[in-house]
Amino acid sequence: MLSVTWRNWGGTEVCAPSATLCPTSADDVAAIVVRAADDGTTVKAVGSGHSFSGAAVTSGVHVDLSALRGLTGVDADARTVSLAAGTRLHEIPDLLAPHRLAMANLGDIDRQTVAGATSTGTHGTGLQFGGISTQIVGATLVTGTGDVVRLSSDDVELDAVALGLGALGILTDITLRCVPAFGLRAVETTGSADDAIDGFLHRVAAHDHHEFYWFPHTDCALLKANTRLDGDLPPDGPGRLRRYVDDELLSNKVFRALCEVGARAPWAVPGIAHLSGRALSGRTFTDSSTRVFVSSRTVRFHEMEYAIPLDSVPDAMREIRAMIARRRHRVSFPVEVRAAAADDLMLSTATGRNSGYIAVHRYHRDDPTDSAAYFRDVEQILTAYDGRPHWGKMHTRDAEQLRAGYPRFDEFLTVRDRFDPGRVFANPYLTRTLGV
After folding, report:
1. Collapsed DSSP state (helix, strand, coil) of residue 331
2. Under 8 Å CB-to-CB from 422, ≥6 apart: which residues?
3. What is the residue-wise DSSP string for 102-132?
4. Per-residue pLDDT tens over the stretch 59-79
5. How far apart are CA 315 and CA 67, in angstroms?
6. What is the pLDDT of residues 131-143, one digit of tens each?
7. Would you give the DSSP letter of residue 236?
8. Beta-bridge mates of residue 177
């Protein structure tokens, strides 16, 4: 048993749990939950700590799922795989490779656990693809009463558990529907911000996966389009040295140094942004899906992201550009814009509508008052477009505000009342976002 101060990856949340326990089975988890309920304390599962919100914060017991990892089952005919909940996303490709399978879509960071990523709504981009939670077809959950419950796609409760915020129980096993292993042809081009914004709706409809990054204080944008290819193809395109220069040297080491300068001298940020924008260059390459989807992200940051109706993205981006100039924010990180297909999960940010995602970031050493003002101003714009905040990222919404944006919000609360009647899994974040 350990009891240490816990901080998330971005440094936005900190807590001092009374104990940190590392179960090795669902039965172990159930025993922990029953004991906590008897003691009148709370329990929170913790994965890699990559959420920027307070989803994993607790003064009670932290359940570290790092010992619950690996492939626990494969159905080759159905193309489904079962994974222990603490399995990291970056571990999954090697587990699936012998079965010639892959996850249908991924985000650009793979340090999260599969349970943490799905419970907070992690997603990639692509108008024909939902978030990772939509790939779930089964799950094993330890409820607040200590029951071990197995859910399948026939159970309506899976629509809640697949993206459950940690409010319903502790996931110990997740079954995903996979696809045959595939490659991606990635085309990265530079362009103007106006072209990236004006052409966004056309490009997300025309490409399997499209996103763009706009660099504040400039007219520079980096556009990415990925085309799916049959088979797990060998790498083709820029060599190892060029990939290192682009993905590690420029995107991490040099960028970190520039962010440090900007944090210490905010007046220099616009000049730094222009320098970063001019350093952009296009490239085309082919690789396995995972190696194209995922990027190395070692520069620490704070992040807010909202999902809005897809058609509203261009107008919202124009407002954000104007606001940054008007309010004289100094922003060293690019604004990221993506899309995802509608789904019917109870608390998915894309439930019931095709969605565009606008993500804003600040370097973790930036002045916290300035960063808070920037996030507040962006949030005000995006909530006016019926925006839904990413559950794993920073936001200020509460239960009543969120209820208005989620048709199945109260249905989720009904499942919560049944699975966690004693609120063993409650914490301040869930109290704010879901209510008592």
Report:
1. coil
2. 37, 144, 145
3. E-S---S---SBHHHHHHHT----BTT---G
4. 999 999 999 999 999 999 999
5. 46
6. 999 999 999 999 9
7. B
8. 80
